Amino acid sequence: MPSGLIALLDDVAGIAKLAAASLDDVGAAAGRASTKAAGVVVDDAAVTPRYVTGLSPSRELPIIGKIALGSFRNKLIIILPAALLLSAFAPWAITPILMCGGTYLCFEGAEKLLEAMGHGGHGEAAVQTGDAAALEKTTVSGAVRTDLILSAEIMAIALADVAAQPILTQAAVLVVVGVAMTIAVYGAVGLIVKMDDIGLVLARRDNGGVRGLGRGLVKGMPVVMSALSVIGTAAMLWVGGGILVHGSHTLGLHWPAVPLEHLSHAVAAASGPLGPVTGWLTTAVASSVVGLIVGGLVVLVVHQIGRLRGKESR
């Protein structure tokens, strides 16, 4: 009897070790996938506050909460099952789909850069007026549709990183990434949106230092929003270009991945102790250039199609 109990405890200990190792694998894979999806996340955080611009301050957080719930549904109910089915029955399609998403990121980045240079924009909706309830419903539905695209790209990046893992590990990683990214993005968005109000409250305090901090928050938020927009644009070009470079190499094309890798190694070797940093920067800049070229071409095609449709409708 004691020997049987000891054997049972050994089995339990073995299962516990296996579960702990599996959790470590899920955590590590989720961390890698989250890092690769950073560009999409920054853009999501930069874009979402615009959806509550012009709305009642008392409804800002409830609206962001509704968008966050929609994002959870997008990731866990729509995208997660589709991603697992894709991984199980058509894993060959993951890289092409990921590259399509990368192309979309490049297009968005190039479009925003074009807008910043004063040559049009991407047609973001202007602040609307009308019935508050209807406007809120329209705002939430539009934001959730945009989130679906960005969430699909986040989950595709995560899936590509764990495509060789068992299906349960894939599911666990996608759930962790989906939940963590949604909380991170919309938590940050809520903080950004209410930062002005926090600054105003602090600016009314008796303490001079606290008042100065409050005024600094109020004055600094436009700068923060502009910086987020710039960082988001750069991140989209970098991540989108990187996806295209890596994907083309995975599909058997040596250009441009191999020459860029040689360039990165050469720069790193010539930089001494700073080699890891300069090598990474070289790869990031080169990926951004690829993203800008591809995105610029897509923008040109899309705008040309728009002009042709405009002529046909006259």
Please characterize this protein's 3D structure:
This protein is mostly helical. The protein is 84% helix and 0% strand. The protein has 9 helices and no strands. It has helices at 2-36, 38-47, 57-89, 94-116, 132-161, 167-203, 208-250, 257-270, 275-312. Residues 11-23 and 122-128 have low confidence and may be disordered.
**What is the terminal separation in angstroms?**
90 Å
> Which descriptor suits the 3D outline?
globular
Query: Uncertain runs with pLDDT below 50, 5 residues or more?
Result: 11-23, 122-128
Please report which band the strand proportion falls in: under 5%, 5-15%, 15-25%, 25-35%, 35-45% or over 45%: under 5%
Give a count of the beta strands, DSSP E runs of length 2 or more.
0
Q: What is the count of helical runs?
A: 9
The main β sheet shows up as: none
Helical percentage: over 70%
Structural class of the helices, strands and pairings?
A: mainly alpha
Q: What Rg, in angstroms, do the CA atoms define? A: 23 Å
Mean pLDDT: 77
The H/E string reads HHHHHHHHH
Short description:
With 314 residues, the chain is mostly helical. The chain is 84% helix and 0% strand.
